[in-house]
Amino acid sequence: MVARWMLGLILATLAVSPQAKDAGSAFQSAPLPTIGNRGEAGGFNGMLMVTPDADWKEKWNTPSSVTPHFTTTREVARGGKIFVLIFLANPGLDAQGTANVTCDLEVIRPDGSRSSNQDGVDCLKAKLPGPATNVYLAAPVIVFSGDPGDPAGVWTVRVTLRDNVRQVNVPLETTFELK
Predict the structure, then answer these.
(1) Number of CB atoms found within 10 A of residue 102's CB
(2) Are 144 and 18 in contact (CB under 8 A)?
(3) Which residues on adjacent β-strands are paired with residue 89?
């Protein structure tokens, strides 16, 4: 397919010094579903967000006292661009205080075939600058550009966050529609 996927460590600097935001009610509410755009396992939390905000990086890279606000969407027009952001909170820390979170990333076309599939991608491998319970943005960001040859319909993004310290997994899933 013609889809241009930029999947990987486009935020490589976050793996070295992740920016933290205070954990909000998104991670302190009632028990979260084990599959969906939010999830939890053994106290480790994750969430996916689909945003059309091309300035998402600037919105995130603010002082921790500033809560970033992202526009969310469930659709993208042909020729448009969206970003799937992966957030996590409360990863286990090793004896040196370092988080070790990897993720499996899968993007599925409307016909059920895979557009992209990567396992063991570094999501957050760093000594955290704040409490583990803060919300952190994972290093990989999935960028989707709806090109002319891409099939219209509902696309699915699946991410499995793997906390390699706690030995727990959080499966997450979100969708968007290419119009």
Answers:
(1) 18
(2) no
(3) 45, 135
Query: Is the pTM of the predicted complex or chain greater than 0.90?
Result: no
* Unique residue bearing structure tokens 């600097």: 13
Query: Which of 149, 49, 37, 164 lies closest to 99 in space, CA to CA?
Result: 164
Decide if 148 contacts 78 (C-beta within 8 A).
yes
Spatial CA neighbour of 124 closest among 39, 35, 9: 9
Q: Which residues contact 90 (CB under 8 A, 6 or more apart)?
A: 23, 27, 43, 44, 45, 132, 133
CA distance 109 to 117: 12
Alpha carbons 158 and 36: distance in angstroms, whole number? 9
Look at residue 36 in the predicted model and tell me its pLDDT. Answer: 57
In the Cβ-directed half-sphere of 51, how many Cα atoms lie within 13 Å? 18
Parts of the chain with a pLDDT under 50: 1-35
Look up residue 20 and give its two tokens. 């933290």
